[in-house]
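User: I'll paste a sequence; please echo it back and then give the predicted structure.

Assistant: Echoing your sequence first, then the prediction.
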Amino acid sequence: MDCKNTTDLSCMMNSQGRADTTKTTLGSRVAILLCTMNGETFLPEQLASFKHQTHTDWQLWVSDDGSKDDTLLLLERCRTSLNPGQMTLIAGPRKGFAANFLSLVCKYDGQADHYAYADQDDIWNNNKIAQALQWLDTVPAHQPALYCARSELIDSAGRHLGFSKAWPRSPSFQNALTQNIGGGNTMVFNHAARQLLMEAGSDLGVVAHDWWTYLVVTACGGVVYFDTLPTLQYRQHQNNLIGANHELTAPFRSVFRMLRGRFKQWTTNNISALQKLNPKLTTENQRILQTFSRARQKGFFGRLHGVYKSGIYRQTRMGNLGLILATLLGRI
């Protein structure tokens, strides 16, 4: 293959099969969207990791949701250490982490080509942004695109614990209707995807901003890439809002949540929010959504038939078993 004038991913890999991200990707300004809330303990390491990025064309926008510790002081120190205008701090809506991130997506008014969610207690690999852009820059600008990846799991002292899941099946709308596969802290998306998120707005009642982003991009004909190479260190500690669910018991807890009914309410919220974007959904995804939505309202046999016809699925065998049980019990 002639790699001189191609964006094929195989031409971007070095001899170890890794994307070559030693040089910054030119022509792509990235808006880092960081949400904070009483994050003084681990925030300095995260802020430092932004400064160490091999891709240097970035802006930092921070939405603080009412911190009472020294978070704001740390952010101000960071702002003064950056170039003028490189960092902006705004007040969050104080309606939870999902609303804070989606509000920040809508409020950002700088100039950017791509957008990266950021949590306050992670540590980004030096090539995190560049690694995402290696794939995102192969996607036409008009097409919504979402990059996400695995994470290295660390404890509060920075000790290695393992890695997040590498999902076996391809991303799709039929999968996004039942689960999220990408951690928001790894997500980077293009301007076309951001426009869809802005059109839907921030006051949606969805359970998580990352699941919503995966759902929106796949629903509206976008493309999603899940990178099996970790891009950051994801800290596991007692104040985490959402854990990595890497333990052996995690699949069983996921099934238990579905059978308890929480999954049904989350699905209802997601479907309701999707109505705002219904004209932007592909024809096929409109059909899938309609089939799935109607199936949820039917009796036992109608529900089984409709869910099967919709083609929804989860990534693992245990997850799909839980999906079948939830369908049988009317908890979907």
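The first strand starts at residue 30 and ends at 36. Residues 261 and 331 are 5 Å apart (CA to CA).
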